[in-house]
């Protein structure tokens, strides 16, 4: 019975990994597939031609840097503003805390397509259309509710006695936040940073609408424009997708422990 249970568990794990990792593996294989053999069931050999074409034949590295800059700006803005706001919502007493969180959640429910036109007019009016900074601001607006909800939940798990003790020692509320609670919230900050970064990295609609200069395109927009009227470069699209996924994989691996700690914070209470 134990052997059957162990075999069943192993098969379940294999099926689980195949389901989630199979598409990425096939994408990697497609990126190494010779361009003239994509109609065959299996390649005769593997090649790096698609990667050479993407990295040296196109300005894709610049596109990756654009996405890195936009995602980094969005993440920093959300963490700086969102962490302070989440601390206030979790530890300070004032009227309307619940209403504020509900309003943030309501903002996140707006479909992006319904806000494209007004945001475009606002960015054009303030001179930020077709700029990476102007793209990061709408991203931060839609990522801020996620930041507030995750960090508020995390700050609530920190003992109130820590904040009270800091206040007794003479700290102002901001000093107690910056010196005592913020260092303890590092797992939650790491989790939130990864989620916001991934959102900004993968966003397509705003980037397609607000940016018109080819040199300022982000990764999703650039990949979508690889195809032409007469040619579908599937190998290059796959190679670009793999290259675009690597920064997210690296970030997740580097901050894996903090992400898990942040996601499981408060799951078990003593």
Automatic annotation (TrEMBL):
Organism: Myxococcus llanfairpwllgwyngyllgogerychwyrndrobwllllantysiliogogogochensis
UniProt-listed InterPro entries: BP-dep_ABC_trans_perm, MetI-like, MetI-like_sf
Membrane-spanning ranges: 7-26, 63-87, 99-123, 135-155, 176-201, 237-255
All copies of domain ABC transmembrane type-1, residue ranges: 64-255
Record key words, sorted: Cell membrane, Membrane, Transmembrane, Transmembrane helix, Transport
Recorded topology in the membrane: Multi-pass membrane protein
Cellular component, GO annotation: plasma membrane
Top-level taxon of the source organism: Bacteria
CDD domains: TM_PBP2
PROSITE patterns from the UniProt entry: ABC_TM1
Protein name: Carbohydrate ABC transporter permease
Subcellular location: Cell membrane
Coiled coil: none
Family affiliation: Belongs to the binding-protein-dependent transport system permease family.
GO biological process: transmembrane transport
Keyword Cell membrane applies: yes
Main location: membrane
């Amino acid at each position: 019975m134990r052997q059957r249970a162990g075999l069943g568990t192993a098969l379940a794990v294999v099926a689980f990994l195949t389901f989630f990792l199979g598409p990425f593996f096939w994408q990697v294989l497609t990126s190494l597939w010779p361009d003239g053999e994509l109609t065959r069931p299996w390649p005769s050999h593997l090649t790096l031609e698609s990667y050479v074409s993407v990295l040296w034949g196109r300005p894709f590295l610049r596109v990756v840097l654009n996405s890195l800059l936009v995602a980094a700006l969005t993440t920093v803005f959300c963490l700086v503003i969102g962490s302070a706001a989440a601390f206030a919502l979790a530890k300070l007493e004032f009227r309307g805390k619940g209403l504020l969180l509900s309003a943030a959640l309501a903002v996140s429910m707006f479909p992006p397509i319904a806000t494209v036109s007004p945001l475009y007019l606002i960015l054009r009016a303030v001179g930020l259309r077709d700029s990476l900074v102007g793209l990061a601001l709408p991203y931060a607006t839609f990522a801020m509710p996620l930041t507030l909800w995750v960090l508020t939940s995390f700050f609530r798990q920190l003992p109130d006695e820590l904040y009270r003790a800091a206040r007794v020692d003479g700290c102002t509320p901001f000093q107690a936040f910056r010196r005592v609670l913020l260092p303890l919230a590092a797992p939650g900050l790491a989790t939130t940073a990864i989620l916001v970064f991934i959102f900004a990295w993968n966003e397509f609609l705003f980037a397609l609408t607000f940016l018109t200069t080819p040199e300022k395109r982000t990764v999703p927009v650039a990949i979508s424009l690889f195809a032409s009227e007469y040619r579908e470069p599937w190998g290059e699209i796959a190679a670009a997708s793999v290259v675009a996924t690597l920064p997210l994989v690296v970030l997740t691996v580097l901050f894996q422990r903090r992400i898990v700690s942040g996601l499981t914070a408060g799951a078990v209470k003593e």
